[in-house]
Amino acid sequence: MPASYAYLGPEGTFTEVALRTLPETATRELIPYVSVQSALDAVRAGDAEAAFVPIENSVEGGITTTLDELVAGEPLTIYREVLLSITFALLVRPGTTITDIKTVSAHPAAQPQVRNWLRKHLPDALWESAASNADAARLVQEGRYDAAFAGEFAAARYGLEALETGIHDAENAQTRFVLVGRPSRPAAPTGADKTSVVLWQRDDHPGALRDLLGEFASRGINLMLLQSRPTGAGIGNYCFCIDAEGHISDRRMAEALMGLKRICLQVRFLGSYPRADIAPGGARPRLPGTSDAEFVAAADWVARCQDGRF
């Protein structure tokens, strides 16, 4: 397989900046793609070793385009995640003033992060969505739009100027990006890991979601993301994207996944991988009764009871 990583392009996206924080990119060719879908499809087709795409931001939650691709497309696995702090610059062609701006563009996920700033400073400007923030900058360069919300670092790449910088509605806003490849064995646990799955209910009944979540709660597993996505089978039909603390090699996580496999119509395992927000070994202390040793001891006790050795 080619030693290359696909990513949401063009050059100058926040995705590219986050991707370049991974040490292995020094030995990979980094290839921009026009959309999340095309980057992931490059992996499915064998044209890239992995794809790097945004999956969640701290203002709006999950990036639905990425989630839906992981839910419905040919199976892929998450191997790494990166967190990047996000602030925007308003990029314009040289000589443009704030009063000249009638149209602005950016990726749809950017709008909730600059909505209040836009309302205050450019209340009459028309918003147009672009495939990425860098693509919005490229369109400004071509004269399609007057301004783009993008990273300040993209200005030089597209011959633009940063009319305003440090734009954000929420302090400490972050976006989470993931490195996605074809399915294979998960990396060894680090002691600070995350497991991602998608769950489909067998049927809709009172307490159905509680039953799913109970498989995690009864084993002391904390959830980090819970987002419903429509299945396409009609109004009210949803699957659930879940990120949970822990690794599939942990006894408690393995048992939770086995329980979910028993009660769900379908379970899609998206991977177990190191968390980006804490150092290896820095996960929160486990609740009493949820360590691997305690799961092993409980299983041994049941075996002894079955043998009449209680």
Features:
five-stranded mixed β-sheet; 15 strands; six-stranded mixed β-sheet; 310 residues; alpha/beta
Helical fraction: 25-40%
Please tally the β strands and state the result.
15
- What's the SSE pattern? EHEHEEHEEEHEHEHEEEHEEHEH
- Low-pLDDT sequence parts: none
Classify the secondary structure makeup into a structural class: alpha/beta
Number of helices: 9
Task: Report, as a whole number of angstroms, the end-to-end distance.
Answer: 55 Å
Regarding quaternary structure, what we see is single chain
**Roughly what is the average pLDDT, rounded to an integer?**
93
Largest sheet: 6 strands, mixed
Radius of gyration over C-alpha positions, nearest whole angstrom: 22 Å
- The fraction of residues in strands falls at 25-35%
Shape: elongated
